[in-house]
Design brief:
The structure is a single chain. By secondary structure, this protein is an alpha+beta fold. Helices cover 20% and strands 33% of the residues. The chain is built from 5 helices and 12 strands. Strands 2, 3, 5, 6, 7, 8, 9 and 12 form an 8-stranded mixed beta sheet that branches. Strands 1-4 form a two-stranded antiparallel ribbon. Strands 10-11 form a two-stranded antiparallel sheet. The radius of gyration is 18 Å and the shape is globular. The chain starts with 15 loop residues before the first strand and ends in a 5-residue tail after the last strand.
Length: 201
Amino acid sequence: MPILPLLAASLLSAPEPDPSLWHGRFDYPTKALRQEQSGAVYLRLWFDPTGREYRCDVLQVFGDAIFAESACKAVRRAKFRPAKSSNGGPSFGATTTLRSYTLAGPEGDSVRGIKTPTEITLEDIPGFANDAIPNFGIAAQVMEDGTVAACEGSDASTPLPLVQAACDRAEQMPRQIGQDAEGNVVSYVSGLRVGPNRATN
């Protein structure tokens, strides 16, 4: 599996939201506002090569289930930068994200403390203490058979040995087979969150 060089003009990239259209309270559930509830939803989002979301998988809900429906609706209104394959062309894409809804108070404080889970954990990387491994992202090109054909760090400032280790882990892990909105199998670029194994720190 090639690890693409970290260039200023990166080719391989996962879908990314426009932050100005993703954050805010415009999609806060009315019932939750009335009852002063806070919550969060961990989502797996799928996009076509134009950046249009066509599938929203709810992986975990913190709080009332009403937040899940609201979070998926918010995704459909938000704008995302389309994924790009290793040759720079448009691609299907998938990424995970945490959508939080918080109000003032203890419950809101608790929700604000929820962090987006890491999908790949690193430890015992030569030259890096476990507590010095940062959180970062990688983009992995997943083929129709679920194998990873190419991988790259999402940020050029991430040390290459860490990117290499994360991409090696991504290659070893079973990856979900991609499907378009009609159920046809497709290759896609997956955005993955990487971080240290906190249990060893």
